[in-house]
Amino acid sequence: MNLRTFLQDLDARGELFHIQEPVSPHLEVARRIAARDGQPMLFEQLAGFSEWRMAAGFTAQRAHFARALGCGASQLVSRMAEALAAPQIPPQNSDGPCQEVVWDSIDLTRLPIPRYHPQDGGPYITAGVAIIHDPDLGRNLCFHRMRVQDARRLVVRVVENRGTHTAWRKAPEGIPMAICVGLPPHILLAASMAPPEGQDESGIAQAFAPSPMVKAKTVPLEVFAEAELVLEGILTHALDREGPFPDLTGTMDRVRQQPVLRVTAVTHRKNPIFHALLPAGLEHKNLMGMPREPTIFAEVNRVARCTGVTITPGGCSWLHAVVQIDKQGPDDARLAIEAAFRGHRSLKHVVIVDTDVDIYNPQDVEWALATRMQARRDLVIFPDQASSSLDPSAHQSPGQKALSDKIGIDATIPWGASPEDFVRVTY
Fold first, then answer.
1. Which are the catalytic amino acids?
2. Burial of 209 by CB count in 10 Å (0-12 exposed, 13-18 middle, 19+ buried)?
3. What's the mean per-residue pLDDT of the chain?
4. What is the gyration radius of the CA atoms in the chain, in angstroms?
């Protein structure tokens, strides 16, 4: 399955919203996406970019990922865990649709790269999957937002001490990088996951669904054969301003000095489709939060019988989680709280519930809090813990890990109590 076949499937189900009139990538596209956040959309005409279309919102619902992975929404966590545990090697093809058109000269202004917010530092690529090769650890996939600097260069937000940053620091001359835009949900999800160091995310993608690759034109890397657009280049050690830009939390991220990507090739499919991912929108939240659910699931399962995990949109799909357990002993909920924080180090608040609570329904979780939790008994506070720089309320010092107080809540039926006293009536 590629992006086009997935969009065709959505269209056949009546779920794809078509915008027929010309829409400008400069601010207007973002307003249209935000007005229908959660709705798969296809912009049929882009003002000033006659050969391009633009897709958005096709991974804004958990059901979209479930359909792409061939499972139910409640099975996503286990499906991700299975692929993480048993990656497969993607096939390498001799050619692919992503190279149907090869540009003779580089001019990034020919691409319909949106400007999402009036305060943005410039036009930004937000749905680009970066592919690099670490000399010690091998291939690595990840997301980076990228500001257009000029016709041949992008400024790349590289998070410190993560995969790209580690490889980039090893190479004083810079590292080859390829950016794939316009990918199907299963590859986007794989690229968002956090496997053990040295494990290639493309193997997770292949475990989800066929994900063939082809050799890039100007850099020693392989790229996804059915991507809509591929940018190749060298991530140099030249630095330039990156930001401001809306963060996952919906607040503006600050300006930093970040590495410059010098683009050496642009290839794309005929009649290409650009993927516009709205910052802090539901697509962004899903791709940030969902890939952390299997790591929480695995850690909690070491100490209790875990039956479900969700990282919630209301918690910015990064800072809050609900964990469902089949309680077997008096300490299970407390142990599950501690394990959840190990499974996702940026987690700030976690709620533990019983199997009769729908973790995807905020009202159901709130009901459990209202009827099963007492603060003195069930609230656990962990002060001054290493946390996420995305949390604007955390204590942040330059060059140091952000610190935050973390809270775990046991909203399960108290051990030893009569379960009948906590059962909801049905009609």
1. 247
2. middle
3. 94
4. 22
